Amino acid sequence: MSHAITTGMGNAGVDWRRHLPGLLMLAPLLAFLLAFYLVPFAYMLGESFTYWSGDEKTGTGPTLLQYFKTFESARVSRALVRTFRIALITMAITLLISYPIALLLLRVGRGLRTAILLITFVSLASSLIIRNYGWVVVLADGGAVNSLLLALGLIESPIRLMYSELAITLGLVHYAMPFMILPIYGTLLRLPPSLREASLSLGGGEWRSFLRITLPLSLPGVFGGTMLTFAVSMSAFVTPLMLGSPRSAMISQVAAEQLLVQLNFAWGSAIIVVLTLLTFLLVAAYAMLLRKVFRADV
Question: How far apart, in whole angstroms, are the C-alpha atoms of residue 159 and residue 166?
Answer without folding.
Answer: 12
